[in-house]
Amino acid sequence: MVFKIKKMSCQMAFAVLAATALGSVTAYAVPIYTLTDLGTLGGTKSMGYGINDNGQVTGQASTPYDRMTHAFIGDATNGLSDLGTLGDIIYSSGRGINNNGQVAGTGVTSAVQEHAFTGDATNGLTDLGTLGGTYSWGYGINDRGQVTGTSNTIGATDLHAFISDATTNILTDLGTLGGMYSGGRGINNNGQVTGWSTTRRSPYGHAFIGDATNGLTDLGTLGGTSSEGYAINDRGQVTGRSTIATGQFHAFISDAITNVLTDLGTLNGGTWSQGQAINANGQVTGTASVRGQKHAFLWDSGIMVDLNDLISPIDLLNGVFTLTDGNGINSFGDITGTGVDANGQTHAFILTAQRTPSAGTNSVPEPAPLALLGLGLFGLGIARKRRN
After folding, report:
1. 18-75 pLDDT tens trace
2. How far is 189 from 172, CA to CA, in rounded Å?
3. Contact at 8 Å (CB) between 195 and 185?
4. Most Cβ neighbours (<10 Å): which of 32, 40, 147, 237?
5. What is the pTM of this model?
6. Given CA atoms 204, 210, 216, 219 in this order, what sign does their dihedral have?
């Protein structure tokens, strides 16, 4: 089911309203998203976790039996395709997808152990094994087919981040920042990994950036005790979450050269946020609190905006879908994540960004900060209408 603006007059009114409020900002600078509910695999729930530049999404969805959750690959046109499992039929989950349609994630084996996997719609899933222990979890995959994640080691006590070989699928232990535990979450096309690790001095985890050759570098925090890296782009910018001095978690973005973390703040009316994906342009999506509820956000060039304010005003006013988590963003600004539909069911979604007409269908929409601010103000106006 695709929800979008039905009449050109509505779309133009939306764009012109933001542009008029901002003076010189043109209507085409305003990002308009088309919302697609990806549905399920026959059950009631689904979650979108990763999206590639071809608009393919991976995640997990319930089957008709509902107690079974399977990894999927899908898009806005064809819906979802079941990727199956590693042997046990109960569970698998896709967490990352590259531009070749390869998926990384976690599945349950016939021995009832969770293992990281890589796979695609043609060849099915391949078990990546472990670092000598019994369990592993896959999260990120790059275009070379390298996967990162977490595995327990021999003795089944320590958890370590890993990176897999694109040809042999053998896992390499990335070690830690001096503590007992680490986990890999995101990987870029240069083989750089981000995640979290405990340190020698503190049991609280810190976000890191690293690779198989140089080990891990501590990214520090935003002034609090802990941080976690969730995603990394090819420039080496990391996003994730960190506690601030007062204890709340805030989303951050790191500098590609200095590794210094910048606080992305929160949405209006909220106290916490976390960045869950970042694209090549430095745009971040994630989730944040808004008056006690979770809302997905887009952060671009210093401005954080509620994604619910960037979809069609008609959908927003009718309460068709509430976007709660932004989990993946591609180079074109298309976003996948999780939302709640009108029946209260959790569904995966795709937000397809409106391409700039003058630059062709493959151009990247680059919302100007002022345009985003205008949209945020427009969203606040809608919220006031709702309350009234």
Report:
1. 433 333 333 323 447 989 999 999 999 999 999 999 999 999 999 997 789 999 999 9
2. 17
3. yes
4. 147
5. 0.86
6. negative
Torsion of CA 304, 305, 307, 312, to 10 degrees: -150
Q: CA 387, CA 195: separation in Å to the nearest integer?
A: 40
Nearest to 339 by CA among 355, 352, 327, 321: 321
DSSP lists the bridge partners of residue 358 as none
Rounded to whole angstroms, how far apart are CA atoms 60 and 71?
A: 4
Q: What does DSSP assign to residue 364?
A: P
Give, in degrees to the nearest 5, the angle at Cα 351 between 51 and 81.
Answer: 50
Residues written for the chain: 388
358: number of Cβ within 10 Å:
7
In order, the DSSP letters of 45-111 are: -EEEEEE-TTS-EEEEEE-TTSS-EEEEEEETTTEEEE---BEEEEEEEEEEE-TTS-EEEEEEETT
